[in-house]
From TrEMBL:
Family to which this protein belongs: Belongs to the ABC transporter superfamily.
Transmembrane segments: none
Name of the protein this chain belongs to: ABC transporter ATP-binding protein
The UniProt record lists the keyword ATP-binding: yes
Domain ABC transporter: 7-237
Keywords: ATP-binding, Nucleotide-binding, Transport
A GO molecular-function descriptor: ATP binding
InterPro entries: AAA+_ATPase (IPR003593), ABC_SmlMolc_Importer (IPR050093), ABC_transporter-like_ATP-bd (IPR003439), ABC_transporter-like_CS (IPR017871), Mo/tungstate-bd_C_term_dom (IPR008995), P-loop_NTPase (IPR027417), Transp-assoc_OB_typ2 (IPR013611)
Length: 358
């Protein structure tokens, strides 16, 4: 899915004295896109959100909205609304008054406020809670009130600062589905901050992965998951096997070891590098049965862990290698299985191996 560019962060960076918390970022955000900025604590993701919202001025660069420079525009003039993790609801106001507060500050007619509040509360499935107060609501209901308040004024962009972080696991999953469905319904740009990889994958059109104030990779969830470009991204997203390799020069750079010589997606210049391959990309099979585009290798089984629908194997690579790989297979595919210490033959597709940037 493609989106018209709405926001452009052009070389935007942030420093506090000599401390550089965000290296210059060039990033576009689409009109109607659900963009997630993902990273561990201290990666710079919230800094970007605060600069977008006008809470913090950038040290370098410009922020453009539909081509107009809004870098110095005050918070109250930006057509953005923010949803915070603590919801920031007014405890002395009813749900309806919380949701309608922004419209009241804009001096909209009472009839218009009442109509829009009713529409938005119906949208977030809280029509029957209009007269309640925040203390009388569950965490998920308070979250939906905060969302209703953010969208009632029809902003161009909704900024969400880890809004699901305070919810328990089951409610969090439910709110992920609700939030994504709501965004699709109103077709408003959402910029979502999280440190949760599963949350980012399940909700986003694109993901921006950050670490130590730098953008590591931008792409669709599938791009990020299956085509990590750096060791950080590969390790941050699940259980990629990271292995050293050597590339040979030629028309099609190829890996010599440890995964056997073959051309690779996104191959790097000749020399040493690291490669990533996911545990589920392996299958069991003899070299004689290897199809076109596949490679095989013999290793020795070190451990086997039953996980229900899948089983995880740890296999020591052959030829005296110090390296092991994690292999995740559907449990029925193991049949009678193999014993610890026995030889196993692994197969994988060359298309499933990614060369990582240094």
């Amino acid at each position: 899915m493609s989106f018209r560019n709405l926001i452009h962060l052009a070389g935007v960076g942030k420093s506090y004295g000599a401390v550089n918390v965000l290296k210059p970022v060039d990033l576009t955000i689409g009109d109607g896109e659900f963009l997630t900025i993902l990273g561990p604590s201290g990666s710079g993701k919230t800094t970007i959100l605060r600069m977008l919202g006008g809470f913090t001025p950038p040290s370098t660069g410009r922020i453009l909205l539909d081509g107009v420079d809004i870098t110095d525009m005050p918070i109250f003039e930006r057509p953005f609304n923010t949803v915070f993790q603590d919801y920031a609801l007014f405890p002395h106001m009813s749900v309806a008054k919380n949701v309608g507060y922004g419209l009241k500050m804009r001096r909209r007619p009472r009839a218009e406020i009442d109509a829009k509040v009713a529409d938005v509360l119906a949208m977030v499935e809280l029509s029957d809670k209009a007269g309640r107060y925040p203390a009388e609501l569950s965490g998920g209901q308070r979250q939906r009130v905060a969302l209703a308040r953010a969208i009632v004024c029809e902003p161009k962009v909704v900024l969400l600062d880890e809004p699901l972080g305070a919810l328990d696991a089951e409610l969090r999953r439910s709110m992920q589905d609700f939030l994504k469905a709501l965004q699709r319904r109103i077709r408003t740009t959402f910029v979502f901050i999280t440190h949760d990889q599963e949350e980012a994958i399940s909700m986003s059109d694109r993901i921006v992965v950050m670490d130590h104030g730098k953008v590591e990779q931008v792409g669709t969830p599938k791009d990020i998951y299956y085509r990590p470009q750096s060791e950080f991204v590969a390790k941050f997203f699940g259980e990629n096997n990271i292995l050293p390799a050597r590339l040979t020069a030629g028309a099609d750079p190829a890996i010599e070891s440890p995964l056997g010589g073959h051309a690779l997606h996104g191959a790097a210049p000749a020399g040493t590098c690291s490669v990533a391959i996911r545990p589920e990309s392996f299958s069991l099979g003899e070299a004689a049965n290897t199809a076109a585009g596949q490679r095989s290798m013999v290793g020795r089984l070190e451990s086997l862990t039953f996980l229900g629908a899948t089983t995880q194997l740890v296999v020591r690579l052959g030829d005296g290698s110090p390296h092991t790989v994690k292999v995740r297979l559907p449990t029925p595919d193991l049949g009678e299985g193999v014993g610890i210490g026995e030889a196993v033959s692994l197969r994988w597709s060359t298309a499933d191996v990614s060369v990582l940037n240094a």
